[in-house]
Amino acid sequence: MRARRVLTLAAGLGLAASLAGAAPKKAAPATPPAADVFLGYSYTEAGDASLNGIGLQGTLPVGDTFRLVLDLSGHDGSFAGADFDQIGLMAGGRWSPLRGRLRPFADGLVGLVRTSLSVDTGDASVSDSDSDWGFALGGGLDFGLSDRWAVRGLFHLRLLSGEGNWDSDPRFAVGVVYRLGR
Length: 182
Description:
This protein has about 180 residues and is mainly beta. The protein has one helix at about 1-20, and strands spanning about 35-45, 50-60, 65-80, 80-95, 100-120, 125-145, 150-160, 165-180. The chain is elongated and about 60 Å long. The model is unreliable at about 1-30 (pLDDT under 50).
């Protein structure tokens, strides 16, 4: 009889220990989100023109998974004898569900893009510029190198409205991220 109690007690303790080991562990306290700055190479298309340039972004956390984003980009290039310059300023939100080494994110931005075009024929020069409002949808991935530094790749599809037409301009950017206040 006594052996049966010992076996029952041992089995009960073993079951309790295995259930306790299977219980979720309390996570270590997470580092609070920090503001960050991105600087990198940026490529976009404006109609048939391929434009190269630079992208600058700043983000400010609002909670654990949402950030406010300010995006400034400048591009230039030429197509069919015309020189193009394009400056974009957009703001919006970013949702990023993960805070590990790999951080995927999705963006929604609104703002203005100013495009300038000039053609030099030798004897005369003709130029025109236009500011178009629009929005950008996209996302990307941050790959953490350390607590403060990361590499970011992003894609936006900018939908711009100007002169009664909608234009869709894809934009790719890759560069470095510096996280402030860590």
